[in-house]
Every structure is written in structure tokens, then in C-alpha cells.
């Protein structure tokens, strides 16, 4: 299977988008990251999605800040599921990115995650869940991840909380 594509509009988005890569790695899923700007490299954006279609990429995770057109433009060129991660911006702390990504017109779907690190990690987890719908080994690893999360919470459930 082709790796999950992690795309971002700028190299400066990597500290956030790296969380998606880390989640995918922890679940044994291969990934590939690239910088593709919706505004500065539109031809590269189109050819990247054409290649992804040919290669059988199962999921695309796209991080973008500010105007955040990348996830929507990617989705316009493919039937591959695209998950958008709003990258925090300096001016509006990612709210601008979130609103841009979540406001897709009817007929062009982008799954939108939370702003920042949590959204990127959950995009990786959601990509694994999609892959797990047809790959039982990945689904098993997602279940194991969830069990580990539960056990971690349960191990701390009896802690004395400050008053």
C-alpha cells in the first residue's frame, strides 16, 4: 500500500504536522511528507494529487494556516479522503485556519480536525482508522492504542486531587 501523504503549505508547518507522522508511525503506517502550497505551487498541487491517485494513496492529511486553502484544493482534485489540520497562525491563533478549512462547499468534502498538535495527531489516528476499515492488522493496532489509553487513565483514576 502507498504511504499516507502528509502535505503542508510551508515547511514551517512541520512542527505541527509531525504529530500526524508520529501517530502514524506508532501504528505501523508508512507516510510521506511534502510541502505543496495551494497559492505558490498550484501546478505541483495538481500533479501531486494525480500521482497520489495513481499510486493508490489511501488518505491525505493536509495542514494549512491562515487562508488555509490547501486541504480544500487537494480535495477538489481527488476522491481520496482528505483530512485538514488547521495550523495555528500568529494573528488569529488558528481560528482563521479552522474556519477556512471547515467551510467547504457542498460536494467537496474535507474532514476537519482540531487546531494544532491535537488535530494533527488525531488526523493520523483517523487515517489509521480509515485504513483499518480494510486492513485488519491496522485495526488491531488501533484497538491496542485505545486499550493503552484506557489503561493509562485507569492507572491514574484513584489519584488524590488537590483541593
Automatic annotation (TrEMBL):
Enzyme class: isomerase
Keyword Isomerase: yes
Record's catalysed reaction(s): 5-carboxyamino-1-(5-phospho-D-ribosyl)imidazole + H(+) = 5-amino-1-(5-phospho-D-ribosyl)imidazole-4-carboxylate
GO molecular function, one term: 5-(carboxyamino)imidazole ribonucleotide mutase activity
Pathway the protein takes part in: Purine metabolism; IMP biosynthesis via de novo pathway; 5-amino-1-(5-phospho-D-ribosyl)imidazole-4-carboxylate from 5-amino-1-(5-phospho-D-ribosyl)imidazole (N5-CAIR route): step 2/2
Keywords, ordered alphabetically: Isomerase, Purine biosynthesis
Pfam families linked to this entry: AIRC
EC number(s) recorded for this UniProt protein: 5.4.99.18
Organism superkingdom: Bacteria
SMART domains the record matches: AIRC
Biological processes annotated in GO: 'de novo' IMP biosynthetic process
Binding site for substrate: 10, 13, 40
Domain PurE per the UniProt entry, residue ranges: 2-153
HAMAP family: PurE_classI
Function: Catalyzes the conversion of N5-carboxyaminoimidazole ribonucleotide (N5-CAIR) to 4-carboxy-5-aminoimidazole ribonucleotide (CAIR).
Family: Belongs to the AIR carboxylase family. Class I subfamily.
Name recorded for this polypeptide: N5-carboxyaminoimidazole ribonucleotide mutase
Organism annotation: Idiomarina loihiensis (strain ATCC BAA-735 / DSM 15497 / L2-TR)
Source species taxonomy: Bacteria, Pseudomonadati, Pseudomonadota, Gammaproteobacteria, Alteromonadales
Name of the gene encoding the protein in the UniProt record: purE
